[in-house]
Each structure stands twice: as C-alpha cells, then as structure tokens.
Amino acid sequence: MKDETQSIDRRRFLTVLGVTGAGTAALTGCSTGKVEKLIPYLVQDEDQVPGIPTWYASTCTECSAGCGVHVKTREARAIKLEGNPNHPINAGTLCHRGQAALQGLYNPGRTKGPMVREDATRKDLTWDEAIGRLAQQLTAAQGKVAVISGAGPGTFSDLLAAWTSALGGRLVRYEAFDRSPERAANRQVFGLDELPVFDFAQARFIVSFGADFLETWGPVVEQQRGFAQAHGFNGQGMAKMVYAGPRMNLTALNADQWHPITPGSEAALALAMANVILSERSSAPADANALAATLSAWTPEKAAEATGMTAESVRQLAREFASASPGLAVAGGIGAQHRGAIEVAAAVNLLNYVAGNVGRTVKFGAGLPATDGYGAMEELIAAMNAGQISVLLVHDTNPAYTLPKSTKFAEAMAKVPFKVSTSLFLDETAAASDLLLPNHHALERWDDLAARAGVRGLMQPVMTPVFKTMHTGDVLLKASQKAGGVLAQFNATSFEAHLKQRWSGLARGGDPAQFWRDALQRGGLYEEPAPSPGVRLSANVPTYRPTDLPTFDGPGEFVFLPVPSSMYHDGRGANRPWLLENPDPVTKITWGSWIELHPETARRLDVRDGEVLRLRSPHGEVAAPAYVYPGVHPGAVAMPLGLGHTEYGQYAKGLGANALDLLGAQDGNGFLPYVSVKVDVEKTREYHQLARTDGNPRQLGRHIAEAMPLDHAQKGWTVEESLKQEGHERHEVNTEREHVALEGFREKQIEKQKLGAYAEEHPRWGMAIDLAKCTGCSSCVTACYSENNIPWVGYENVTRGREMSWMRIERYWEGGTEPGEAFGARVIPMLCQHCENAPCEPVCPVYASYHTADGLNGQVYNRCVGTRYCSNNCPYKVRYFNWFPFAKRSFESPLDLQLNPEVTVRARGVMEKCTFCVQRIRGAQHQARLEDRPLRDGDVVTACQQACPSGAIVFGNVTDPESRVAKAKENHREYHVLEDTNVRSSITYLAKVHA
Amino acid sequence: MRKLVVIGGVAGLVAIGVLVPALNLTGAQPQPAADSTTAPRLAVADSANLKGPRQPIFFRHDIHAGQLKVQCQYCHYTVGKSSEPGIPSVETCMGCHMAVVGSDSTHRAEIRKLRQFWNDRADTAKPKLEWTRIHTLARHVHFPHMRHIKAMGPNACQTCHGDVARMPQVFKVNNVNNMGFCISCHLQRKVTRDCTACHF
Amino acid sequence: MTAIAHEPHRPNQTHAEVTRDVLATLSTPSRGYYMALFTAIFMFLVGLFTFVMLLKEGLGLAGYTPPVMWSVYITTFVFWIGIGHAGTLISAILFLFRSPWRTVVYRSTEAMTVFAVMTAALFPIIHIGRQWIFYWLLPYPNERFLWPNFKSPLLWDVFAITTYFTVSTTFLIVGLIPDVSAIRDKVTGWRHKVYKMFSLGWTGADSQWRHYNKAYIYLAALATPLVLSVHSVVSWDFAMAIIPGWHGTIFAPYFVAGAIYSGIGMVLTLLIPLRKVLKLEHMMTDYHFDNLAKLTLLTGSILFYAYAMEYFVAWYSGNAFEQTTFWRRAFGPMWWAGWSMIICNAFVSQLLWFKKIRTNLTALFIISLFINLGMWFERFVIIASSLSNDYLPGAWQNPVVTWADWGILIGSFGWFFMYFLLFARTFPVVAIQEVKEMIPFPRKHGGGH
Fold it and tell me: A-chain residues within 8 Å CB-CB of C396?
C-alpha cells in the first residue's frame, strides 16, 4: 500500500499547487493557521502545467455504445469527462452515465488492492502473491476453467478469448442488456448476423415499438443527436415520432403520439402496418410480394384487437409511415423484451423493408460483434452445477446481480472451488469470489474498444491509479508466465506493449509510431465503412402467425414491466451519487425504487402515492412504494431495474428493491425475457415517501413549457399568435398603460446603472434553449454537477426539496386527466435566468447577490450570510442553500480528487446557484487577453451546453448580433418563462413543436 | 439612503487612510544591509535569525535573483501563462547544480542536500523536498498570476511579494490574503473591482 | 377613611395604600412565582440547546423545505415584534392622548415591549445561515470597501429593530425613576445600592419633576411614530418581495393593526394572572380590562377587514398566481393554518362586542390566548404558505415543522417570560407616582398620611 498512498498524497499536495477548493475548509476562508507544504515535482512532466488543464482522449466504457471522451485533468487528476468531437458516435457530447464514470474512478467503494478470501474474511495480498495463486489454480484446473467477460470487443477481449481457449476453458461474453433478439431477427429476415445502425437524422417519420432509443437501447447519444436533428423543428418541418408501448418512458414522452398498447402486441401492430403498406402498394420493393402470404393474416382489425388501438388508427399510422420517406421503425430494448421479442424485431424488419427504409435509415454493415447471450450463460450455470468448472474468472460484469435469482447463478457459482473477480468494486459477484484482482479503471489503463465496424476507440491512462489495482491484461500475461505450459505463448512484456503491437498492424504502411501518436490524440481510429448495399430478404423468412403473441407466467393480474433505468442502466450506475440524485427523467424520483400504477388501477386497489406495495410473481416478490400516473398501461405495473443491490458499495447497498427477483429463469430462445411474468399487487398499508423533485406536476396554465403545432410553426407564428389560434389566449396581467410605465421604469433603471464599470462596454451573456430539441435526458444535470462541484444531498434532504441541482429538468404532465384523453408531458430545463432586472439582487442585505457589468447575476459565496431572502424572491426557485455541510459528505475521499479547482466548494450556510459557468467565462477572457484578441463567439461553452446530446442549448454574448445566441433569440418561437414578472430573464426558450 | 452611503464612504476612506500605509507595499528588507549586487555571507545557522520560516534547504533568493540576476520566470516558469506561478522542479535546480557546487562551504552544504533529494528521486520511501508555503490564498479567491504579469510586466512580482531579490530567506511582506490589499491596488490602477473577477 | 369621589379610572385607594400594595409586589415571592420563573428558565435553556445544535449541524435541522426558505423562525420574529407594539401604544400614544385608564397598566405593558423586542432581535441572528458573521449586516467601515445593501428591506429591519429597542428601553427606564427612588427609600443593603443607581439621584424636588415631565413627554413623542413605523418596515420584508401573497400595498397598515392586536392579546395574557398573583385587584379593575378589550375589538375588526380585502384583491386582480395562492390558503394542503388564523383573529375578536364578555376576565383570558395563537398562525400562513406555492408549480413543496423549530419557539417564550417575571419582582409593575397623581389629596381631617 505504501507506494500508492504516497502517490495519492503526491496528488493531494499538487492540489495545493492548484488553487483548488478541495476540502470544505473552502469558505472558512482567510488565513488558515496550519502550515501548508509545497511539494515540487522531481521531474517536471512536460504535459502538465500547474493551473492549466490537460486533456486526454479516451473511450467511455459505461455501456456498450463506446462513445469517445475527452478527459480533463488538472495537476494530474481527472476532473471532468466530455465528449470527443471527432468521434463518429457521440460527436462531442456525452450522456450522464458516461460523465458519472468519474465517480466510478474515485468511488470510495472501490477494491483497494488484491485480496483473498480465507474462511469468510478477506485479507490483502501483494500482487505477486495474488498472481501466484491465480497461476497455481489455473495449472491445477486442467482446463476446467470458465471466464465470464463483459469487456467490449477489442484487443483485450481477443487476448482473453485466445487465453481461455489455450487453457481449454470456456468463455462467455455476457452483457446484461444485450440485443440478441434483434440479431436473431436480422438472421431470420435478412440472413445477417449483425445489428444495423439507425440513421434517425434522415428519418421523416419514426415509429418505435417499445424501443427506448433515448435511454438505454443502442448508442443513445448518437440516436438522440439524430432524433433532435430529425424531430427538432428546423424552420421548414420536422419528423413525426410515434411510440407504441405499454409504458411512457422518456422516448414515449418525446413522441408526438403515444399508443399505450397491450404488452406484447407490438408485432401485431408492426405486421398489420406492413400489411397495409404492402396491400396499398405505396412504396414496397418488388421482392416484398413474397411476404404477402405472411402479412395478409395480419389485418388492422386483428392488430386493433391485439393492441387495443382502433383499426382505423392502425391504418392511418401505416399510411402516414409509408408516405413519409424515408421513415424509420425501431424495436428492441429491455423494456419490450418479452418472449415475442424476436418476432417483434422481425416484424419491424419487415415493416422497414416493405416501406423501403432498409439501406436508407436502417444501415447494415456496422457488424456489431456478438455477445454470447443468455443461452451460453445457462449452459455455464449447468456446467458449474455439474462441477465441470474448477476455476471461474469474472471480468467487468456482475452476473450475480444482473441475472435473476431464479437462475440460481449464485448457488452454481458457490459450487465452483476457486472464483476470481477482476471487478473494480466489491459487487455481488466479487463478494462471492475467493480472489479479488481489481482491474484499473478505464481512465487508468491502456485498452481499446471496437464500438462497431471501423470505429476503434483507444483508452490511455490519464493519471496514476487511485488505488493499488492492476490491469487485468497484465494480470493474465504475468499469470501466464508464472503458470507456463500452454500459457507460455502469452509472453508480451505488458498489455500496453501487446496493444501497441496490435495497433501497429492497423497502420497500413506509414510510420507506426506516428500513426500511434495520431490515434492516441484522436482517441482512436474512425473509418466507418459505407453501409452494405442492397440488403435483401432472406429466402426463407419464417411466417409469423397471430398465435405467436407472447405469453406471461403466473396467475397474476398485471403484466410486470421492468424498466431499464436511464440512470442505473443494468445496475452499474447504482453506486454513483450523481446518478442516484439525478431524477429519473420521467417520474422525477431519486434515491430509490418505485412501482408504477395506472390511476384506474390505483383507484380500484385504493392505493395512493408512496404506499408500499408488494408484487408477487411465481418466481419471487419485491416491495416498493407506489407511484401513480397515467403513463403505464392499466393492465400492467412497472418498476425500474438496477437497484436493490446486496453489495456494490455504501451508496448502492440496500437502496431500493431489485425488480429482477420477480423474473423467471426460462430462456426465451437465446435471450432472457424480461417482460415475462404477471404479478399480483398486495397492499401493505405502510408508507414510504418517494424522493420526488417534481413538486406540482401540472403547469396550471402558467405557460412555463410552451408548445405549438407544426403548422403554426411553419407559418412562422409567435407563441402568442399560436395560443390565440388555439383559443386559450394567456391572460394579460398588465394593462397597456402599465406596460408603458414598466418600459419607462426600465429605461430609468438602465440609466441608473450607468455608473463606474457599468458605464463601460461589456458583453452581455445570454442563453437560448430550444425545447423542440430538448428531450429531458438530463445529461446537462450531471455535467453541471461535475463542473461546478455541486454536492449531492441524499434521500432525506431530497424529500425536503433540498437537492442542489443548479440545472434541473422540470417535467409537466399534459392531459390524461380523464379516461380517453391523450396523455403526454413537456420538459423544460430550469436554471438561473440571470435576470437583467433580478429580484434576488435588491433584497440581499450584503450584496452577495448582485449584477455584474457583463450581465451575470453574480453570487459571491464568501460574502453570503445566508438570509435566503434572494431565494424567496426568485420566481424560478433556482437558488440552492447549503442547509448542512453537504460538501463534506459528498466529496469524501477519494471523491474529493474530482473537484474542479476553478470552482469554490461552498460551505454550510451559503446560497449557491448557476453562474453561467463564470469560471469558464473568466478563463476564456484570460486566454483572450493573453493572446491580445477579443473574445470570439464560441469561446465560452457552458458545461450544460457542452454536454447536451441534442444541441438544444446555445450560449454567448447577446450584444454581438453575429453570435449564435443572438440569432437564436430572434427565432419566432422565442418566449420567456414568467415574462409577466418583468424580471427580464436572460434565458430565451424556443417553444416546442409537435407534429 | 444616499446620505447614509456618503457618511459610510467617508468613514471607509478614513479607515483606508489608516490601513494602506500599514500595508507596507514596498516590503523593505530589514536584514543585514546588503546592496543588491553582492549578497551577505550567511550559514544555515543564521537562517534562524532571519525573518520568515526556515526552509528544508536554505535557498538564497538574494543570491539567485539578486546577485546572479536569474529571472524569476526561469524557475517560476508558468507564472506568465497560468494562474499558478509554478514551483520549480528539483530537475530545474539540478539543471545548474549538476555543475555548480557552490562557492563556499555553507553553500556546498545546502547544494548537497538538494543533490540528495535528486539522487533519491526513484525511491518513493525516501523523504521528498517540502518547501514551507509562505503566500497562501483563501480557497474562495482565484488569483490569475498570468493576467497580472501580462499587465504589469515580468518583474512585477515584488509588487505583492516584496523585494525577494534582497531576501536571504523569503518572508511574507504583504498579507496577500487580505482583500483590502487587492482592492487598494485595483483602485489605484482603476481596474476591475467586480466580485466575480476573483470570487467564483 | 373618608369617601373619595369615584370616577372609574381612579383607584379606590389612598396614597399610602397604593404605595403599600405596589411595594408589596416586591416582597418575598410565593412558590407559584418561583415555579413560573424556573419553567421560563427551563424553556429558555431548551431554546439555547437548539441554537447550539443549529450552530453545530446547520440550519437544516429546522423544517425548511425549499421554496419555503423562511418558516417558523421568521414567523416567531414577526410575532414578537408585533407583541411589542401594544406596549408602546398604551404607554406613549395613550399618554399623549391623556387617556386616564392607561396609568395602571402602562408600566407592565412597557416592560413587555422591551422584552418582546429583545426576543425578536435574537431571530435575525438565529435564522441566518452563517450566524457567526451576522455583523456583516451592520454598516461599518472596512478596508474591503464593502457596505451593506441599503436597498434591502432586511437592512431596514436592522435599523428599525435597533431604534425601537433603544427608544423603548430609555422610555421604560426614565418612567421608572420616581418609583425606583420610592423603593430606594424603603430598602437597605445591596438592593438599596441597585435602586439608588436606577433612581439617578432622584429627590423628588419640583425642578426635577418639571424636567422629568418634559423628558417624559418628549420620549413619548419619540416613541409614538415607532408604533407605526417599525411594523411597517417589518411588513415591507414581505410587501417589497414579488411573491404572490406577499406583494401587497395593504401590508403596512395591516401589519400595524395586527401588531397592536396581538400586543394587547399578550397584555391581557400577562395582566390577568399578574393581577391575581400580585393582588392588584384594587387598581386593575374591570374598567381597565374593558378598555383593553375595546381596543382589541377595534384592531381585530381592522384585521377582519384586511383579511377580506386580501381575498377580494386577489380575486379582483385577476392575477392567476395571486388567486391560486389565496385559494390554497383556504383549501390547499395548509388549510388548517389558514382557517385557524381567520377564526382566531377575525371571528373570535368579534365576541368582544358584548360587554358581558369584555368584563368577564376568564373569558377575556381565554380569548387573549386565542389571539396569541391566531396571530402566530397569521404570520406562519403569510410566510410559509405563500412561499410554498409561488410561481413555478414544479418547485412547490409544503413546509414541515421539526423539533428544532419547536425548540427555538419554546426558547423564545422562555426568554421573554424569564425577563418579565424578573422585572415584576424587582420593579413596581404599576406606576406608583402616576397612580397617586390621580388620587385626590385627602382633606385636612381626612385619613391618608
């Protein structure tokens, strides 16, 4: 441990070099008595300049999408993750899960070094001993070795495969949220064993059959970017999006139409649509006739009866879909992974094919590589039970949690004599293992990831490891050398060397060293191949009969819908406070599980929000508080996945309930059917308050999140005009004369302000947020947390509304009040509006809140005495108060290493709020001054703007007519929230447009 | 209201009148009278009687910066481009002291200490060089050194740090952690006094 | 003992009796008194403990639920400031109006004023986030060129409270001089020294009386405007903000009336038992309480009108935010608070139309308790419930009350009663001299001296 502690200390001392806010002595402020030490570098590391961030390109491993990231490091420690602009998949933006990888890196729950479990206690080992034990066990195992790996495709996975087969063992590439049903369907329909890339940006009409393409399904950042391009109003038009699925998830929330169809009936709808299109010959390719036989059985009437829609609406949907060219239909995802998942995917393939979208918006040739799916896992479990495995190595995945209890994985694992885990954390699997060989975090190691054909991302160590961990690649190599024999062939000096050697193969002539440097700088190798042309139907497309609709286990009354959470994903997000406190984009619930019921159901069962319900399925039961809303099919109840850990660190352990406990182990033909049980709902009459952040979920006609229909937008109408047309003109509070008076008052104010610095020329910072693009995904929220050292507050305080999120996404329900009325929602990012006429400023008795010359609403933390008057007087309620020393708990070591030195850590008793990332503004101004040039538009990018996958946020100097923000503010959809209060907000919202 | 402000303002100015002289902006060195070209001969033992904290190595700014006229930025290499002045790495010292062994026994003794640190660099168990920090700023203040160097030239250091070139042992001339010290300067020079220039 | 012509305001006693009775209140106290005193001190300690916890842990211990950033503490602050006003009204304004019935009660009410302000003055410190730098609210020259923001109503508060405290304290002490000297002449030992100090060398010479009366009138004149100004300033803490339910032009008079109303409520709560305990039935007669009750009825009715106006304006303005706020006041999640304020203040006070009730001390006492409760709730409703539902529905949140809120609330009462009880023992709660002035001089052959 010695050397490591030193390296940590060294970094800590370096933080003294940087004017960092680390440690919450922050505001206790001036003249601290203690003597501080300055530790000079021994050898100056040339790419580290104290006080200036150094950026490294790397690749995100938080899900299988493989986005490229830029890692911001200060004084040799990673402090922020941003998207890599050169990367074809995420093009410079990053989702909240990706950004929260930092809290994985610095997580207090990480395994600090190699450990062995002896009679129920774990004791530390040196790496030599640890690797020794592994080698010895491997030789002893005689090939009875099994490896479960969640590592994405790439050099490491290949090494692992070769290594395992050399041992004569079996390798299972396992990904909890894998997409095997789609791949099966593509085999069936097109004879291609791969997954296509969906070009949302090109689509003019999007239909999703239960696929949550904005949350967990596929490369969400890329899809969201594409969706925003297609569905965001661009001045002329926009694509329409229809979502058919039993639950309103974030994707459905963004749809122009949501059809809450019966669970499992997606295929019927898709096939019926295909049938209509084919029979009406709007745009079907010639060879589609072959399908006529299959499809003719699927009449709209049949679909209507299966889905609960009307036949007419099915027909109309089909016609709209066909007429829009190209359209895009997508299916898949855990939320719709029932026993008929393959049929749904296949049906959607047919639909796309019949509508002529394949090759246009559905692009094959990306050749997404295989995971082995659930079938292989079942075999392994059997093998373990049969005692055929004597050494089990689990790498980068957590099957003991992500597999339902009913699969008896844990029991089978217990039968294995020697279990090894390379997990970074003490997760469920690691806890059940004998030997812990903690791997480096992705930001600490050399690695690569082949996201898809032609997209190879590189990972490089951006800092010295936080703990005494070791790259699993090196572990394998060292162990091989120790074990010798069949493994002797793996003789690379280190994994790094192995990786470089493998990459030099990719150089194709040219100087490999130069190629490597470029690749590192770029973040990898991006040469996407052209989509494979002329994908045709395979000769023998199976026929799907109406009897194929999926079945559900158990006598229960409600179909159980597990919800893949956009925060916790398959459960790996559950130990990151940033994700736990970032509210679920739809339900706005933090810190815990919930059970969703339809109001009718709730009325029938007499259940109110927060009553703890117990769900019973044939396979198990779980209990969680109820959340009543019309966003779930009356015949179903829904519950988020990813919580209810029994291990996995202090934050995750024991938080919420694990929905997987309800599921059966039965194989849905190559995959695990998540939506496969019916449950009974039992009242407990106990109440557990949900930590919700949505206050009152209705707008009450206060015109907060505005929207207008497409035709109005096309006519170039303003929000006012559109509202008038719609018949509900907003009530004008101020009379004409009052308006004149206000103007006069304003003029006076401006004159009054022209004193001292305020008389000089200054930029005026402003922001424009396009609600037509914003999906409410909440990436900006996490970005804000990590940029501005925002503390998390935990369950109790969130229940009191004390969360500190400077940037919050407010979600307001629309309709759905009486049965039959369409139910939808609008989202609006709410942050400090930096009002020109800010009500918070005059009331502060000490000028802690004041207006800067460049139009910011400044907040001087160290001047604040905490009267909280400013927050009372803020109409937007975007000021946040440190009720407790929140920062102390939030940034417990080593999480404090993530703190941004450019931003003061707020102490207890002071008010804080969005500053428009003033540290970035000042930084840009310093830079411009050093280069003797004026600030250019785009020099300042706020954290939220930087992270937004759909590019909804524009920031800049509004006094410069050429700036993007000034242009955006001229848009006819422009409006201000709570304009009547005459606070002159600097944030312009552009009304949402719905097709 | 305005009247109150005026009264307060007057009172404030009086206070400033009292305080500013007390700040001793020049930082004159009360140590053994030495002209700026030749520094006094001093041994480690003397450092105890000198102002300012004793350092692990009796590093003589008066010799390096004063007598030998080494530019500040030769060692404090990032002060012109970063908010941090940059503490010279041991490597930087060795750049000269590979060759320079010191003119007399007292100097040699100190340089030997330096070399010791350098030779132990590989061994993490051995102690590291730890200077005692003299100027510390509260964590809620952001002081961009580069802007001040840019505005006031490369040798403006002494405005705040005093005439280091004449200090055998550096001591705190001005309490840089005192907002009044910053403000009075910004007033004189008529530059920004916006809070968010430093506090964010 | 010859008959004395009887007007109701004149105590039916001779000079000697007055002096005796009043000074009797200073003799060895009963067990009841000690029990009361110790309860008060205990309550104060509860508050002290809570405050220490606030300093240690943070304000989060109290039931703040943003957007309710002000809650029980500010409510209690306004409550106590309000209490003070009745005292000044009775001792200063009624003095200038030469209203005879004030004489007997004004001393105790004035003491009440001082202690109420002392209590209120604690809250601006208790409720801020960083209590240890509360002095940043005061304008003092500093090398940082930083001044408080004179635009902020909170700063006006600071001035209002300090002024009010200074004036009312001076007024009280000056008023005490002649009586203290009377005691000085009666007691010995260290107490003699103490009273000697307070009587500022009073001999009762004519010249002294002349100056004394002048000074007293001037001080009364000085205190009078404060009755109106202080609570107006306090009301502007709210009226100047843009929160629906706060942003009203009616607030200043509304709050002043409320203040006097609550003040008299507290006067009654204090005097009725005090009268019993200190056996002052001869001096404090139905007549005095009847007058106090009438004053209560008047201010109570003004409040009734103000409440009605608030609702009317909310409806008439057509401002959706205003309307929602007031609708939720009555029927929202905090309806209980809203209604207890209206019933206790607007309705209960109307009972005082009946002379029977006005002169029935038990009834008056109960009503006075209702008034105290109601006025506390009024402030709670105005502050907490208005904040809990303002402009953005997405931020709405209902306030909760935690042990820390109770602790400080209880502590404030303890602090107040502690001082009042101590005062009642050490100084005459009835102004001996002024009472005597009202008693006609006995004729030669009469009793008296």
Answer: 695-696
